[in-house]
Design a protein that fits this description.
mainly alpha; 2 domains; binds zinc ion
Amino acid sequence: MKCDDFLPAIENGGPLRKWRARSHAAQCARCAAVREGWLETRRQWANPAATTTHQRQLWASAVPSERPVTSSGVWSARRWAFAAAASVLIVVGLSASLWRPSPEVAEVAPPPAPALNVAELEQAKLGGDSSFEVIEQALNQLEVELEVLALDAALLDARSEVELLLTTYKPLSVSQVSN
Ligand SMILES: [Zn+2]
């Protein structure tokens, strides 16, 4: 074995190459010294010295204290908040109007009943000439109805918030103000 092949053989070689490298180091003082130095370096890397105060200060000064908020981050957060609020509004409105009609719902003017022509829809199912128009019309009516429901939900939300505020913070009477 040549001296140049010693370190790769003792580190990455198979059992036979390692054995040959060890027997080479037993006869070659230079490779034995290289092996000792390499083992010492590995021991040092395995047990690194504790970080000094100066090193810690250097690290802390290099790391930015706060991540800068980019405008795109702000906008995406606002977009997410708006989307979440809109979806909550729609879900609350649909559930309040469809499945839990409260007395307050009765006060809200009911949306105009969709004038779906059942006969036309049946014809559309059978594949008449105006089938697409009828389906499109039905979809438009459904869209209008959903918009009305969303408005109702917004109104219900606003009312319940006002009622909550009034029960939490009762309006001051004239006698309370004068005291
Ligand atoms: Zn050697």
